[in-house]
Structure formats: C-alpha cells, structure tokens
Fold this protein.
Amino acid sequence: MAAIIDEHSVGIVETKYVTLFEPPNELRLDSGERLGPITVAYETYGKLNKDRSNAILLCHALSGDAHAAGWHSPHDAKPGWWDVMVGPGKGFDTSKYFCICSNVIGGCMGTTGPSSINPRTGRPYGLSFPVVTIADMVRVQRELLRYLGIETLLSVSGGSMGGMQVLQWAVDYPDMVRSAIPIATAAQQSAQGIAFDVVGRRAIMSDPKWRGGNYYAFNDPPVDGLALARMVGHITYLSEASMRRKFGRRLQDRERYGYDFATEFQVESYLYYQGDKFTQRFDANSYLYITKAIDYFDLTNGKRSLAEAFRNVRAKFLVIAFSSDWLYPPAQSREIVAALKANNVDVSYCEIESDYGHDAFLLEVEEQRKLISNFLAAVAREFNVSEPE
Amino acid sequence: MAAIIDEHSVGIVETKYVTLFEPPNELRLDSGERLGPITVAYETYGKLNKDRSNAILLCHALSGDAHAAGWHSPHDAKPGWWDVMVGPGKGFDTSKYFCICSNVIGGCMGTTGPSSINPRTGRPYGLSFPVVTIADMVRVQRELLRYLGIETLLSVSGGSMGGMQVLQWAVDYPDMVRSAIPIATAAQQSAQGIAFDVVGRRAIMSDPKWRGGNYYAFNDPPVDGLALARMVGHITYLSEASMRRKFGRRLQDRERYGYDFATEFQVESYLYYQGDKFTQRFDANSYLYITKAIDYFDLTNGKRSLAEAFRNVRAKFLVIAFSSDWLYPPAQSREIVAALKANNVDVSYCEIESDYGHDAFLLEVEEQRKLISNFLAAVAREFNVSEPE
C-alpha cells in the first residue's frame, strides 16, 4: 500500500522541531518543578492568513502524535491520525484554515519526554522526568504558538485526551480561543477511567524489563507490560456492540475449540496484535506519564463546581459525544454543556448515534465533518476571518 | 473480628472431600481427554428429607469455593461466600432444604485442578492439566450427587459463572433438575467478556515467574500477573456509578496530588489491595483454566439458536439480573428468558434495580432473599417436598 494523495489530502508533510523554554526560561510545571529546554515536534497544514486569524490547534489523544494529516512519504502505509478530518474541503478545511498539531510534553514522538536525553546527565530522563499535567501540555502548545507568531486561535479541537486539552485551553487562555470543539471527552477523568489506567501502569511497572524506568540502555524494553496496557485500553475504546459485530465469539484460524491456551478467539488475536504493534512505536514510560496526566485531569479541582471552572471562558463551543462511548460517556459531555450554559457560553451539543464506542471519534467521519465545517464557517464569518492568499 | 453465629447461621461447618472417577472410570471431558481420579471438595448445609427431594445445588463463581455458608472456625474473619443467602430462614432456607456446594474442577480450593498432584508423575499437573469446560464442572457435580445418593435437585442456583453451571445443569440433566435460578449470568460469554479474560490470562502468562505454568516448586508464584488479572476483573464487577460513589476521584492518605507514581487515588489503592489479597488464596493456573472454561461457555454452540439449546429443559426458572451489571448485562438474561419461553418453560424474570454492577448478585440481599425463598416454596409445594425430620 502507498500514499493516496488526492485533492482532499494535505499531501506530503514533514514534522518540524523547535526547542523552547531554554534555561533560564524553563517551563514552570503544575508540580512546581521547572523543565527546560523542551523540544516540540509539530506539523502545520494550510496557510496562515495575513492577519493571522485563521489558526486552528489540533490536540492529539493518548497515543497520538504531531502527524495529524497527510503523508510523510509516498510509501507510507497510513496517513496522519486525523487525516479523515484535516485537508482541503474536509472538516478542518486546510484551504481556509492554518492547522497546527504538536506532540504533547511527556510523549515519545519528538517532543521532550521521559525517553529524551536529560541535558544535565547526558542520559534519558526515565522516571526523573517530572510528572506533567494536561495544563502543562497546553502551556507548551501556547509557547509553540508564540514562536509561530499566533496570538489567536480560531479554534482548538481534539478527541479524548485531546478534548481535555481543548477544555484546558478555553479555561486557561480565554482571550486567545475563539472557539473550542471538545470531542468524546470529559471535564474530569472518572474513577473507572482511573482504574483502567492504574491497571495499565501496573502492567508496565511490574514487567521486570521496566527496571524502574531505566530500560533505555538495555535494548530490551518492557514490551509485555506495555502490550498489556494497550490491550486494556483497546477494550475501553470499543463498545460491547462493536466487539460483538467485529469479532463475536468467532475463532481465529480454527474450526473448533482447541482446548489449550493458544490464541483462538478473533477478539484475542486482535488484542494481541494491537498490543504488540503498539510496543513498536510507543515508549512505556511515556504511557505512564500521559495516563497520569489524564488521571490528574479534573477541571473542578479546587473549584466549587464545573460552572465555576468555566467562569472566564469566552470561546464558542461545539461539544460532540457518541452514544456508545463508555470511556467518556455522553453524560460527561452533557455536564460540560450544562456548566458552559450556566456561564452563558454559546454552546452547541451533538450526541452522535454510533455503536463504535469511544473509537467513534475517529470513525464517525461524515456527521462530524459537517458539524465541524459548519461550526467553523460560522465562527470565521463572525470574526471576519479572511481566507489565506 | 470473630464468627457471628446466630439463629440464621448454619454455624461451624467443615469442608469434606471425596475422590471420584478412579481409574478405569475416568471422567471423559469435552476436550476428549480422560481425567481421574478427581477429588472433590464440598460442603452441605441442612438435612436431606426422607425421600431425598429437598436437595439444592449451589454453584460458585470464578473465585469461589465449596465454602458457601457458615464458618470454618469461631476465629474466622468472614463466613462462606453466600452466607447472606444460605442458612435457617434465609433465601436458601437450610431448615427446609439440603444445600450442597462443591469447588469446581480446575479450581484450587480442594477439588482437583492444575495445582493438584498428578498421580502418574508425583508432581503438580501445571499446564498438563486438561482444559475443562462448564459442562465438565457439571459432570463432576453430577457424580458428587450420585455419591451423596441424590438423583433429584429441587433447585440449582448460582451467580456469574455459577449461573452458567445452572444453565448447563438444566440442559444436560433435564430429568434431575426441578428448578433453576441463574443469577447475573449469560448463555454465552460475550466478546467483551472474553477480551477481559484474555487480558487476565496474558497478565499471568507474561509474568516471568509463571514459568510456563511450572512454578509450584519455586515457592515464588506469579503474583504480579495474578494480581493484575484480578484488578481487571474487579473493574468489571463494579459499575461506573458504584465506583464513583465508593471512590470518586478521592485521594488515599494524601491531601493533594503527589506528582509521582506512588499509589494515590482511593480506587487505585482498592484495586491493589484486592489484587494482592487474591494472590494469597488463589492459584494462577486455576485462574487460567477457569476463565478459559468461562470463555468457552456458549450454549448455542452447535445449535441453531438458544431456544434449540433449551429444547429439553424441564426445570422451572427464576432468572435474576441487575440493572447496572455490564459484565453480564440484563439483555443477556432476557435472551435466556425469551429462549426458555419459546420452549414453554415456566420462567419468572426479575431485573433488580441496583447500581452495584455485577457485584450486586452478592450485595443486593433483601430482594433476592424474598424472590428465591418464594420461588423455592412454590416449587417445593408443587412437588410435595417434605421438610427434613
């Protein structure tokens, strides 16, 4: 398989890197620790208009990266993670808008994280990397925008953990954000969500190859633990109905039960494949840090209510949830909507009927395309946002 | 804490053992393999009446054992696993009925399983133990009843995997079973249920201390893997609502986030505790075998429909499900009810409103007590079952 580059594709793109927060201007994190320098991997699609008012920030989920759209090479098997939604004529129409996506801090896809070299020691940070939060991720993105000369976001959007960043943006930088599109997300990680993350982290940390996080020198990373963590994750991304339709109780390469412990159910084979594939591209320590950031996420923390947390929000909102998403169920999106409305924020809510579960945010393309492109067009009209030249 | 032995307790009880299927009369398993001898651990409560018609078989779930009710010693911290439901004046009223509970084959609580000594080698079976099914568990129970001189069951009941055994009993021994009370169960393990079990098994099998199942000689069992498996299980036993109420996002022994990877959420502490506690009483290989039996369970296998599977059923049914159980959701119980009705089986269905999730089958006591005792009284009346002398 090779790249499909048609008139709706952003084409061949390249990840760029910039180093920010050089000492003595380190980033001050929520934990109180200071971190710098921080290299940020990012990509951009489309052109900035002349008054720099058509920028849209795209925020990725747990396992995502800066490569949201297009292809890195004509030989790539797959395009960027949100390619269905980002390109000329798509939901985020790159013929009109300048889209930016960056890898989060703590990640392992080019932005500084636990697998990066600590310049003070010359060795990978490992667990000496400071714990980061969703707000810290947003601080780094804000600095990237400053570097790019962007002081206003026409919109900020993302699903799952990306949606958490969207909410954090609207709260922390109300004057910069004209609109926000949080998708399949929540204003706080639920106890059940924490529970699944706890299992994932324990799986990694009880793998002897994890070695207290200092596995980088051994060329033998904790793949069993990371694969297990990913398998648990995948169960939460699918609905019971989609699992039933996709796999049911069907056997893989067998006509009947083998009465042994070899892989035999299709769902088993799928989970093993997803788990093992993930270990080839993701760092186990980054999985610890990013899930921890998700578990810490709670906009009501230190507030009396979510409505109070949203008090300074000025962005217009389009909130999207999916009926069968049980990781971030629609009820959590409705809480966001209610709290925004309590602040007289202009908010549209759409609950899309889908049995894909949490994964729907990447799979239910058509309805989201229309919703997002219409919403963005209205915001662009309201703020007289010109098209790029 | 010590035993509470009141007028509703069966009091101090003792687990008994019997060895069945002595060669050359080995049990022929679903897999085609033959196994014997098989030692069975069992307990009984109450007295058999003179025409031996008041016997009730209680079937335990994944992590249960033969100790369903009462206390093994006055110093026990906890009674048997279904003590709330089994005793004089309780749901299964031991002043009227003779209740039997045995540990399943493949288990590790006294009945032959992978941790038992293989008499042919003098060493524990480990993974040379044959894979067993729910139907195999039922075959062993049927032989235990023969040994006890019981040819008719007034009822057979159990929750979760216990409920699967109940269904299998009604299908395989229709002439022996006068009534059946499957609780919080399903006629087939769902794809999602298989998926969670797959994760649990993989956690155990990727623990280096599992050693291909031959860990018994090392006094160093795969506790990390088994604890992880149990943690995943516990998440599926609770509902999102019960987790929110029980733990929410509250921290354990901390006022604020620690920004580290120590245990800090209450739900995290709970899961660790449950996982670690489980490893002190349960054998990792038994976890593999029993979850595999659950995953294989599918009454429709080889049939055109569940209704066809139930074609010879003669027992009256009381089917109980819980509104927030997402491991064996009410919809799966309603499928059982519909398939029984298609065969003109006399079936009552009760969906109990509860937010305890799957655990509700052990926690929602009052309503189940009434349902079960009324149902049993009606069956006993219909069959002129006398009280024991």
